Amino acid sequence: MEFDFKFKGKHHCHTAILMCVDFRFNSEILKFISDELKVAAYDLWAFPGAAKAITDEPARELFLAKLKAVGVDLHSMEEVIIVNHADCGAYGGRKAFSSLQEETAAHKKDLEEAKRLLESSIPGIKVRLVYADLDEETEKVFIDVV
Ligand SMILES: [Zn+2]
Question: What is the DSSP string of 24-92?
Protein backbone atom coordinates (compact mmCIF):
# COMPACT_ATOMS: atom_id res chain seq x y z
CA MET A 1 0.00 0.00 0.00
CA GLU A 2 1.27 3.41 -0.94
CA PHE A 3 0.60 6.64 0.88
CA ASP A 4 1.10 10.03 -0.68
CA PHE A 5 0.44 12.02 2.47
CA LYS A 6 3.10 14.38 3.65
CA PHE A 7 4.09 13.63 7.18
CA LYS A 8 6.23 16.71 7.70
CA GLY A 9 4.76 20.02 8.69
CA LYS A 10 1.18 21.16 8.16
CA HIS A 11 -1.28 19.32 6.00
CA HIS A 12 -4.96 19.76 5.41
CA CYS A 13 -7.72 17.48 6.61
CA HIS A 14 -11.15 19.08 6.24
CA THR A 15 -13.11 16.84 8.57
CA ALA A 16 -12.68 15.32 12.00
CA ILE A 17 -14.99 12.58 13.26
CA LEU A 18 -15.67 12.20 16.97
CA MET A 19 -17.24 8.84 17.70
CA CYS A 20 -17.54 6.30 20.52
CA VAL A 21 -15.13 3.41 20.89
CA ASP A 22 -17.89 0.75 20.67
CA PHE A 23 -16.91 -1.99 18.20
CA ARG A 24 -20.55 -2.88 17.47
CA PHE A 25 -21.17 0.39 15.61
CA ASN A 26 -17.90 1.64 14.22
CA SER A 27 -17.72 -0.05 10.83
CA GLU A 28 -21.36 0.88 10.04
CA ILE A 29 -20.80 4.47 11.18
CA LEU A 30 -17.67 4.92 9.06
CA LYS A 31 -19.44 3.34 6.07
CA PHE A 32 -22.35 5.79 6.53
CA ILE A 33 -19.98 8.76 6.69
CA SER A 34 -18.17 7.60 3.57
CA ASP A 35 -21.21 6.50 1.51
CA GLU A 36 -23.95 8.89 2.64
CA LEU A 37 -22.07 12.00 3.80
CA LYS A 38 -19.42 11.60 1.08
CA VAL A 39 -16.52 12.21 3.43
CA ALA A 40 -13.55 10.16 2.26
CA ALA A 41 -10.73 11.48 4.44
CA TYR A 42 -10.94 12.39 8.08
CA ASP A 43 -9.13 12.54 11.37
CA LEU A 44 -10.70 9.99 13.68
CA TRP A 45 -11.17 10.74 17.37
CA ALA A 46 -12.72 8.09 19.61
CA PHE A 47 -13.96 8.65 23.14
CA PRO A 48 -16.50 6.64 25.18
CA GLY A 49 -19.82 8.38 24.66
CA ALA A 50 -18.49 10.59 21.82
CA ALA A 51 -20.30 13.86 22.74
CA LYS A 52 -19.19 13.29 26.34
CA ALA A 53 -15.65 14.25 25.29
CA ILE A 54 -17.07 17.77 25.01
CA THR A 55 -20.04 17.88 27.38
CA ASP A 56 -18.33 16.29 30.38
CA GLU A 57 -15.65 17.80 32.55
CA PRO A 58 -12.78 17.12 32.97
CA ALA A 59 -12.67 15.53 29.48
CA ARG A 60 -13.71 18.76 27.74
CA GLU A 61 -10.61 20.80 28.58
CA LEU A 62 -8.14 18.15 27.37
CA PHE A 63 -10.17 17.11 24.33
CA LEU A 64 -10.73 20.66 23.05
CA ALA A 65 -7.05 21.51 23.61
CA LYS A 66 -5.95 18.48 21.55
CA LEU A 67 -8.60 19.09 18.89
CA LYS A 68 -7.38 22.67 18.49
CA ALA A 69 -3.70 21.66 18.45
CA VAL A 70 -4.01 18.80 15.96
CA GLY A 71 -7.30 19.43 14.16
CA VAL A 72 -7.20 23.20 13.77
CA ASP A 73 -3.53 24.21 14.02
CA LEU A 74 -1.94 21.22 12.26
CA HIS A 75 -4.64 19.97 9.87
CA SER A 76 -6.67 23.17 9.25
CA MET A 77 -9.84 21.27 10.13
CA GLU A 78 -13.08 23.00 9.10
CA GLU A 79 -15.70 20.50 10.19
CA VAL A 80 -16.42 18.06 13.02
CA ILE A 81 -18.92 15.21 12.75
CA ILE A 82 -20.03 13.99 16.19
CA VAL A 83 -21.59 10.53 16.30
CA ASN A 84 -23.44 9.16 19.33
CA HIS A 85 -25.07 5.74 19.38
CA ALA A 86 -27.82 3.83 21.15
CA ASP A 87 -27.11 1.41 24.01
CA CYS A 88 -23.89 3.30 24.77
CA GLY A 89 -22.02 2.03 27.81
CA ALA A 90 -20.83 5.54 28.62
CA TYR A 91 -24.50 6.46 29.14
CA GLY A 92 -25.25 3.34 31.18
CA GLY A 93 -26.58 1.45 28.17
CA ARG A 94 -30.16 1.26 26.98
CA LYS A 95 -31.27 0.08 30.44
CA ALA A 96 -30.46 3.52 31.88
CA PHE A 97 -33.51 4.92 30.04
CA SER A 98 -37.20 4.17 30.53
CA SER A 99 -37.95 4.17 26.79
CA LEU A 100 -36.30 4.32 23.39
CA GLN A 101 -37.70 7.83 22.97
CA GLU A 102 -36.08 8.96 26.23
CA GLU A 103 -32.75 7.43 25.21
CA THR A 104 -32.80 9.05 21.77
CA ALA A 105 -33.79 12.40 23.26
CA ALA A 106 -30.94 12.27 25.80
CA HIS A 107 -28.37 11.58 23.07
CA LYS A 108 -29.72 14.31 20.82
CA LYS A 109 -29.66 16.78 23.73
CA ASP A 110 -26.01 15.92 24.43
CA LEU A 111 -25.11 16.14 20.73
CA GLU A 112 -26.69 19.60 20.54
CA GLU A 113 -24.86 20.69 23.69
CA ALA A 114 -21.55 19.39 22.31
CA LYS A 115 -22.19 21.30 19.07
CA ARG A 116 -22.90 24.51 20.98
CA LEU A 117 -19.74 24.16 23.09
CA LEU A 118 -17.62 23.30 20.06
CA GLU A 119 -18.93 26.27 18.06
CA SER A 120 -18.19 28.65 20.93
CA SER A 121 -14.72 27.15 21.44
CA ILE A 122 -13.68 27.06 17.75
CA PRO A 123 -15.24 30.03 15.93
CA GLY A 124 -16.34 29.25 12.36
CA ILE A 125 -16.25 25.48 12.80
CA LYS A 126 -18.97 23.52 11.00
CA VAL A 127 -20.54 20.78 13.12
CA ARG A 128 -22.70 17.89 11.90
CA LEU A 129 -24.47 15.53 14.30
CA VAL A 130 -25.16 11.86 13.65
CA TYR A 131 -27.02 9.27 15.73
CA ALA A 132 -26.72 5.52 15.30
CA ASP A 133 -29.69 3.54 16.58
CA LEU A 134 -29.84 -0.20 17.15
CA ASP A 135 -32.69 -2.64 16.62
CA GLU A 136 -31.95 -5.15 19.35
CA GLU A 137 -33.99 -7.96 17.79
CA THR A 138 -32.31 -7.85 14.39
CA GLU A 139 -29.08 -6.22 15.68
CA LYS A 140 -29.35 -3.92 12.68
CA VAL A 141 -27.83 -0.43 12.99
CA PHE A 142 -29.78 2.58 11.71
CA ILE A 143 -27.81 5.78 11.23
CA ASP A 144 -29.04 9.28 10.46
CA VAL A 145 -28.04 12.91 10.58
CA VAL A 146 -29.68 14.58 13.59
ZN1 LIG B 1 -20.69 4.04 23.19
Answer: HHHHHHHHHHHHTS-----EEEE-TTTTHHHHSTTHHHHHHHHIIIIIIIIT---EEEEEEETT-GGGT
CA of 51 to the centre of ligand 1 (A): 10
Domains of the chain with bracketed CATH? 15-145 (3.40.1050)
**CA–centroid distance, residue 10 to ligand 1 (Å):** 32
User: 90 C-alpha to center of ligand 1: Å?
Assistant: 6
48 alpha carbon – ligand 1 mean position (Å): 5
Residue pLDDT, tens place only, 60-85: 999 999 999 999 999 999 999 999 99
Distance of CA 21 from the midpoint of ligand 1 (Å): 6
CA distance 3 to 14: 18
Cα radius of gyration (the chain): 15
Q: How far is the CA of 44 from the centre of ligand 1 (A)?
A: 15
